[in-house]
């Protein structure tokens, strides 16, 4: 176990000799059979975040792309694309608790991922994504509203991304998409919407091995979906109560029905 403190060590590692990322087939769909010949290591970066004692607490390998939709001065909706780089500035927290934070800073953008443990402590997941930047960033061409500090976040109604048992690493070769936008109460007037595309994703948080190597793989589902683990319990409880009420109601009705018949036959 690593001590409770703010982590100060992290590194982004380039996995090939390429200094720029190879364009992918598409940012919107999953990998096609025709793309099997592409060297995906050339587009994948790995981010390792260590505690102050050198133990790895968060490890991510991913081909990531951020696509931001905004409006230009011609009142047109356009998109700006930004790859997750090989060597961002990493910061965050790895505490001996139920929450860990990883932040990637690059080219004026700050992407934050908040990891949490499930209520029982047996699983981990990403609770929230955040993206901060200025609308005057050079990536935006002829933007209609410059000089705005944009703060986007994933929707609160999706509280669990990539749920995985503690000690295991999440693996998914299908493209995963996370939407981020400004909450209604944020006061953000930019109107921006960001999509984070994650391909060839291999990720683990709450790591305790000194070797810093991946835990056993936990593969994403066929649909790549996620759910709140408290939902099945609530549904099961409701069904049990409903069945109990039906049985109790029928028993009461049957008791009074029989008693009425018996009383009538005595007359």
UniProtKB/TrEMBL annotation:
Q: According to its UniProt record, where is this protein located?
A: Endosome membrane; Membrane
Topology class, membrane: Single-pass type I membrane protein
One Pfam family matching this protein: Lamp2-like_luminal
Q: Does the keyword Transmembrane helix apply?
A: yes
> Which keywords does the record carry?
Endosome, Glycoprotein, Membrane, Signal, Transmembrane, Transmembrane helix
Q: Which residues form the Lysosome-associated membrane glycoprotein 2-like luminal domain?
A: 43-180
The record ties this protein, via InterPro entries, to: Lamp2-like_luminal, Lysosome-assoc_membr_glycop
Highest taxon of the lineage: Eukaryota
Q: Name the PROSITE patterns for this protein.
A: LAMP_3
This chain belongs to the protein called Lysosome-associated membrane glycoprotein 2-like luminal domain-containing protein
| Natural source organism | Glossina austeni
Source organism phylogeny: Eukaryota, Metazoa, Ecdysozoa, Arthropoda, Hexapoda
